[in-house]
Each structure stands twice: as structure tokens, then as C-alpha cells.
Specification:
274 residues; alpha+beta; 5-stranded antiparallel sheet; 4-stranded antiparallel sheet; binds 2-amino-4-trifluoromethylsulfanyl-butyric acid; binds cobalt (II) ion
Length: 274
């Protein structure tokens, strides 16, 4: 990802509310995905569904044509794909681990988040990876408070995933500031040292997004120029929330409960890990 400005934009309370609407639309769209996921459907079908749902709600998908090259509305990253997977015609199957990442622009403000779904039965080590990655996201969010530094978020995520559980924390891709642009300063890595990096002030809005591998942290990019995969072919999990920095407790602008309600009601999805 390239960050053209070395400048942090703090939002007004009214702008944060607009960003909550954008983030909630992403959550509502991912909830629609959670309703229809089952073996046999394709990620290209999910892409179409997301595009239509977003446009029906007076917004536009923001990944399409990003940097003049991203050719789809969503990223659909299955199994060994870490992020930026292209939707395709391959039927999803039992045992797949599927991250759906969606960005929208609503009223000029970006929402951008991701959720990983498990289709049916998988081995306990994969379910554990999903659980720990989701937990690490919340541990990072706990640190997104005024006067903490970005490195405090990064450290909390790395501690829970790499140090405590031996997973691979992807280094090449990071979270980011979010606002009128999809990618704003500061970068938010998922690894680092406490007390380092920019100090956070009230109403900094961030996309925090751990990308965690079952095996090696090493990744490579496919010849399509986008698809990022694990070098050892083992699965990778990605969760992302949009948050606003506050004094005592970060506000989460996205809404996983919409997604989780649909996930739990879908018999094809495995939510037994939480
Ligand atoms: N959530 C990802 C990110 O923030 C997705 C970007 S896909 C892209 O980087 F196509 F827009 F790059
Ligand atoms: Co993002």
C-alpha cells in the first residue's frame, strides 16, 4: 500500500458519525454474505451480491479500480490466500476458510472491513487460528486510546498471535488510517514495540486488520499482481474493524454483531470457535 501524505487527519464528531454509517453499511453487506454462504457458491457471486447491496444503499464499492488496477469490488481470500484474493468461478467447499474484505464510500466517507468465515468442519488448529486472530483484533483495539502510540496496538496483536501462539504475523501488509481516503496515515502494523510510533489523539479513525498465518509469516504475490499467499501454503486469517480513538475506550464503528447473528443462523458456517 502506498501512503501519499505524511499527515494524520483527525475527524470531527459529525464526521465520525458519518464514518459509522459507512462502516455499518460494510457490516450489513457482510451480514448478507453470511446469510448465503454455503458449499457450491462462488466468490464471484458474492462480489456481485456485495456490489448490488452497496449500490442499493446509495454507496459505491471502493476497491474497484483502486490504484487503477484492482478489478473487483471485494477481496475474497480463501485458505492460503492472505489478502487481496480475486473473486472467481471456483465453487466454495466444506473446509474452506474465506475472508471477505469490502470497502465502500458513502457520503464521501470510507468504510473498510473484513471478516473470516469457516465453511463446515475444519481441524481444531484452523479454528484456533480463527479465534486467536479475532481476539487479537480486539486486543489491538483496546490500545487505541488517546496518548497511546500505534506501536501499542501493534505489540498487543503480535503478542497474542506470534508470541503466545506461534503464528506468523504478516509484515508486508498493515492497517491504516481511514476517512475521505481508503488509506491515510498512520500505518498500523500488526507487529512492533510498545511505546513506539505516532501518538494517538481523539477522533483518529483507523482500520485495524491483523493478517495472521497458521505457519510461516512469509508471503508472496501471485503473477496477477494482487493475490497475496502464504509461502508454505497453510491457511491465513484476516479480520478488520474500523475504530475511532477515544480517551478511555476506542469506539468500534463497524458492527460484527450483524455479521455474527447471520453467521450463527447459517447451518453451513462454523462459528463454534467463539
Ligand atoms: N482492506 C484492504 C486494505 O485496506 C483492502 C484493500 S483492497 C484494494 O488494504 F484493492 F483496495 F487495494
Ligand atoms: Co483495510
Amino acid at each position: 500500500m502506498s501512503f501519499s501524505r505524511n499527515l494524520i487527519y483527525y475527524k470531527t464528531d459529525a464526521e465520525v458519525e458519518l464514518m459509522r454509517h459507512s462502516a455499518t453499511l460494510v457490516s450489513a453487506t457482510l451480514a448478507e454474505v453470511a446469510k448465503i454462504l454455503k458449499p457450491g457458491i462462488t466468490t464471484l457471486f458474492i462480489d456481485k451480491l456485495c456490489n448490488e447491496f452497496v449500490r442499493d444503499h446509495k454507496a459505491v464499492p471502493s476497491f474497484y479500480n483502486y490504484q487503477g488496477t484492482y478489478p473487483f469490488n471485494i477481496c475474497a481470500s480463501v485458505n492460503d490466500v492472505v489478502v487481496h484474493g480475486f473473486p472467481n468461478q471456483v465453487a466454495l467447499k466444506e473446509g474452506d476458510v474465506i475472508s471477505i474484505d469490502l470497502g465502500v464510500i458513502l457520503n464521501g466517507w470510507h468504510g473498510d472491513h473484513a471478516y473470516t468465515f469457516v465453511l463446515g468442519d475444519v481441524t481444531p488448529d484452523i479454528l484456533n487460528l480463527v479465534r486467536i486472530t479475532k481476539e487479537s483484533l480486539y486486543k489491538g483495539i483496546e490500545k487505541a486510546i488517546v496518548n497511546n502510540r500505534i506501536g501499542d496496538i501493534a505489540f498487543a496483536i503480535q503478542e497474542h498471535t506470534e508470541k503466545k501462539n506461534g503464528y506468523g504475523v504478516v509484515r508486508e501488509l498493515v492497517g491504516h488510517g481511514l476517512g475521505k481516503n481508503l488509506h491515510e496515515d498512520p500505518q498500523v502494523p500488526n507487529y512492533g514495540s510498545r511505546g513506539t510510533g505516532p501518538k494517538m489523539k481523539e477522533n483518529l479513525t483507523l482500520a485495524i486488520e491483523p493478517m495472521i498465518n497458521l505457519g510461516t509469516k512469509e508471503v508472496y504475490t501471485d503473477t496477477d499482481g494482487w493475490t497475496v499467499r502464504t509461502k508454505d501454503g497453510k491457511p491465513s486469517v484476516h479480520f478488520e474493524h474500523n475504530v475511532c480513538v477515544k480517551k478511555n475506550k476506542a469506539q468500534i464503528l463497524s458492527n460484527y454483531s450483524l455479521i455474527e447473528t447471520a453467521e450463527k443462523a447459517n447451518p453451513y458456517l462454523n462459528s463454534s470457535y467463539y
